């Protein structure tokens, strides 16, 4: 998993089950060459429990070694932002923690239903893509 993209997901309490579904879909559909690292930002009020983290790592399956779970304080101070605003700030500021040239930010409710085709996220010329539709 040395090359590829960094995948970032921000999660809060009510979306942990959705993040587990996302993790299972990533394990099933993302080829190893597309995964350098996976950064999960735990934006929940009390933090995910140990059992929730363990369950999440199980859901990532073969990709689990690439996962790092961060809290907002690991990234930036978001005390002035709440809800979706804090999530957007975290998705942008996490760039300082990314070791790859590109990263893909996902909401916990985003899931893969098929393997992405080559060049879906980054063109052969190295330009990021934001495909819609």
Write the layout of secondary structure elements.
Layout: E1 5-11, H1 16-29, E2 35-42, H2 50-60, E3 67-70, H3 72-75, H4 83-93, E4 103-107
Parallel strand pairs: 1-2, 1-4, 2-3
Helix pairs in contact: 1-2
Tell me what the CATH architecture is.
Answer: Alpha-Beta Complex
Radius of gyration: 14 Å
Query: What is the CATH class designation?
Result: Alpha Beta
Task: Supply the CATH superfamily name.
Answer: Spore Coat Polysaccharide Biosynthesis Protein SpsA, Chain A
- Poorly predicted regions are none
**Tally of separate helices:** 4
Largest β-sheet summary: 4 strands, parallel
Amino-to-carboxy terminus distance: 28 Å
- As for the number of domains, it is 1
Strand content: 15-25%
Structural class by helix and strand composition: alpha/beta
Summarize the structure.
This protein is α/β, with parallel strands linked by helices and 133 residues long. The protein has helices at residues 16-29, 50-60, 72-75, 83-93, and strands at residues 5-11, 35-42, 67-70, 103-107.
Q: Can you give a write-up of this model?
A:
The chain is of the alpha/beta class and 133 residues long. The chain has a single domain, classed as Spore Coat Polysaccharide Biosynthesis Protein SpsA, Chain A. The chain has four helices and four strands. A four-stranded parallel β-sheet has the order 3-2-1-4, sandwiched between helices. Helix 1 runs parallel beside helix 2.
